[in-house]
Design goal:
About 20% of the residues lie in helices and about 25% in strands. By secondary structure, the chain is α+β, with helices and mostly antiparallel strands. Helix 3 packs parallel to helix 4. It comes from Streptomyces asiaticus subsp. ignotus.
Length: about 230
């Protein structure tokens, strides 16, 4: 169980109890953000894509991921950024985790993610690397909830800082069913427990991405897709 951490609002000086958030690593272990008890919280006045994220290593597998920086809403109205012990930048030879694909492929070239559009581009590049063809962006994303279409595949990319929910998984699966295509989901902040369970039941591959732009598998269907490629590939 994660211990609460006292956080003092820099605006009103009121102290509140804060529970450090945890996110799912690609290896399956939870990564609890290491909040600094003796750090100095800052009042957040402006968000940018870069300052939304913090690099933290998984205590189980050592993989470095970029996760949403924790924030606390104070009763005085201020939004407080809670300090976290960030990991040093990963070197160029850092391991991407255990295991590897059975299908022979060249090394994947990631697309650095700075914007939501970059996240969609990174997902498209990864799907091409897996073996899908004719990837194109959706023209009706707001209506369909699909970001990418390709031969035999539909994909959605969630670039927000909240874990992807159950409804998003079910909507994407229905889109895939309608198109007779495989549905693949990419998320930057992981998945809610119900979403993960439903995706497993529907055999829908789930991937997480950090700001380096390299997706990592979250469930067994994603592992199978990496090893075997598209069903008709």
């Amino acid at each position: 169980m994660t211990d609460n951490v006292p956080v003092r609002c820099p605006a009103c000086r009121r102290e509140q109890s804060f529970t450090p958030p945890a996110f799912p690593c690609a290896c399956g272990a939870p990564v609890t953000l290491p909040v600094l008890r003796d750090g100095s919280p800052e009042e957040l006045s402006h968000r940018t894509w870069e300052n939304l994220w913090v690099a933290v290593n998984c205590p189980s597998c050592g993989r470095q991921g970029h996760w949403p920086r924790p924030e606390l809403g104070c009763d005085c109205g201020a939004v407080v950024r809670v300090p976290v012990a960030a990991a040093p930048p990963a070197g160029p030879g850092a391991s991407a985790g255990p295991g590897g694909p059975a299908v022979r492929r060249p090394a994947f070239r990631p697309v650095t993610i700075r914007t939501a559009r970059d996240a969609v581009t990174a997902a498209a590049q990864y799907l091409k690397w897996l073996g899908f063809h004719s990837l194109r962006p959706s023209e009706d994303r707001a209506v369909s909830g699909v970001d990418l279409y390709g031969t035999g595949v539909v994909a959605q990319v969630d670039p927000t800082t909240r874990p992807t929910g159950l409804r998003d998984i079910e909507c994407l699966w229905l889109n895939g069913l309608h198109k007779s295509a495989m549905s693949v989901f990419f998320s930057l902040a992981g998945y809610a427990r119900e979403a993960r369970a439903r995706a497993d039941a529907l055999h829908l591959p789930l991937f997480i991405m950090d700001l380096t732009g390299t997706p990592q598998p979250v469930n067994d269907p994603a592992d199978v897709l990496i090893r075997m490629g598209p069903p008709d590939g």
